[in-house]
Amino acid sequence: MFTTPLDAGFGSGADDAIVAREQNDRDHRDDAAAIDQALRLVADHHAATGSLLGRTAPRPTLAELRRSPLGQDLRLLAGASKGTSSETVQAAATRVLDLLLRPLAADDRTVPAWFWATGLGRMVARAERAAHGPGGLLTLDETADRLDTKPATVEGWLADGAIRSVPDEDGRPLLPRATVERRRLVALDLAGVPSCTNDVLLAERPLAS
Prior knowledge:
The structure is a single chain. This protein is mainly alpha-helical. It has 2 domains: 132 residues, no CATH class; 76 residues, Orthogonal Bundle (Multidrug-efflux Transporter Regulator, Chain: A, Domain 2), CATH 1.10.1660. The chain is built from 9 helices and 3 strands, in the order αααααβααββαα. It is globular. The N and C termini lie far apart (57 Å).
């Protein structure tokens, strides 16, 4: 059958929509599985800790775990979109990461690289990228250029935990623009260089770093 260019374009658009919908369905299933896995992990750890302290309690059902504050945080991260407040997403992500990855006696936590490759890690990263919105995150090279330094220096800050990042879909670090701008203004101030009153940071709503 003869197909006009218009027909071909329409079919391609419809196919793209189907592919996008199927991908969204897969992401939803993956997120649901990651959430349940995290909830069970925390519940098992809580039960083991209680046993060591001589305090045992009935284990909550999965339905109860899903309704818990942790379950609510995980659902918020799974459903985060470009309209979700960055502060809200970052607060939920911080609670989740602290609970799962911060050692009990440690002053701080480090997110290992392997975490971002897990279903839960991908979900958290996707939520943070969406919440920051277009232009809200900078690549390593963009950050180095903005701060007038070398990418290797920025990598050192990341390794030391002096500045946080969120990975893109390929695992490359993205840095919050507001965090970079604050660091730039501090550097200018220390150098005795006055900053412009219309600086981009002053025009932006502050974001969680």
